[in-house]
């Protein structure tokens, strides 16, 4: 049963620390998304890649967030330095050739708390 | 104004009730429409796509009104297992999905 794998599942960290979240997309999927979910804002797109190339990262605070795809099987989202307002659930999702809803699959999320 | 607006609820309904959720979207170029379901501490999962002619999947019926930029989801004969958050989702062609904040449903025995 193919699935998107995210680590860590839960992370509690102190303000100012670096946080790295990792995602393994479904094998063969060429589009990878990073979404952030909070009670106030809901699900927001942070960045996405197609064939490992970044297509849009306008939803991401550039000064502290960075997203990369070192290879086709790994996407990373890094926050440095982390702040309490970064506390949220970070979802990675992958899709095959595009973004239509019937082919996008979410990972279980990384639950981040910054204290 | 958010691109996709939903009533956050919560909707508390008894088992067996019929409940309807509404959603409006602001981008008239939107081409694809969906309802996702999200359980507590879980990831969103596709419930159903929404087609212009309306579509049904068992107890679930989705409708789209392009002129009013309005999408609805009707759940008949509610089950306890239907308790979740329902997310309205739109996409403009080959662009990432835009999610509403979701409507929370609690079905009570």
Please characterize this protein's 3D structure:
With 115 residues, chain A is mainly beta. Helices cover 0% and strands 54% of the residues of chain A. In chain A, the strands form 2 sheets. In chain A, strands 2, 4, 5, 6, 9, 10 and 11 form a 7-stranded mixed β-sheet that branches. In chain A, a hairpin with a 3-residue loop joins strand 4 (31-38) and strand 5 (42-50). By secondary structure, chain B is mainly β. In chain B, strands 2, 4, 5, 9, 10 and 11 form a 6-stranded mixed β-sheet that branches. Chain B has a 5-stranded antiparallel β-sheet with strand order 1-3-8-7-6, with no helix packed on it. In chain B, strand 4 and strand 5 (45-50) form a beta hairpin. Chains A and B meet through strand 5 of A and strand 4, strand 5, strand 9 and strand 10 of B.
Structural class of chain B: mainly beta
Shape of chain B: globular
Helix count of chain B, per DSSP?
A: 0
Distance between the termini of chain B: 37 Å
Summed over residues and divided by their number, the pLDDT of chain B gives a mean of: 94
Poorly predicted runs of chain A are none
């Amino acid at each position: 049963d193919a699935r998107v794998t995210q680590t860590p599942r839960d992370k509690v960290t102190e303000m100012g620390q670096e946080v790295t979240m990792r995602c393994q997309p479904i094998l063969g999927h060429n589009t990878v998304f990073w979404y952030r979910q909070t009670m106030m804002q809901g699900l927001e797109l942070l960045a996405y890649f197609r064939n490992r190339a970044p297509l849009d990262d306008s939803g991401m605070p550039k000064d502290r967030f960075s997203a990369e795809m070192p290879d086709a099987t790994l996407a990373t989202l890094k926050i440095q330095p982390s702040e309490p307002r970064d506390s949220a659930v970070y979802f990675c999702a992958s899709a095959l050739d595009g973004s239509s809803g019937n082919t996008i699959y979410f990972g279980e999320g990384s639950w981040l708390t910054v204290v | 104004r958010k691109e996709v607006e939903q009533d956050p609820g919560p909707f508390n309904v008894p088992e067996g009730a019929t409940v309807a959720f509404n959603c409006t979207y602001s981008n008239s170029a939107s081409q694809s429409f969906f309802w996702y379901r999200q359980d507590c501490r879980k990831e969103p999962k596709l419930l159903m796509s929404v087609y212009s002619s309306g579509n049904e999947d068992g107890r679930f019926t989705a409708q789209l009104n392009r002129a009013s930029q309005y999408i609805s989801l009707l759940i008949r004969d509610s089950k306890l297992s239907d308790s979740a958050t329902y997310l309205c989702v739109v996409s403009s062609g080959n662009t990432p999905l835009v999610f509403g904040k979701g409507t929370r449903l609690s079905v009570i025995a």
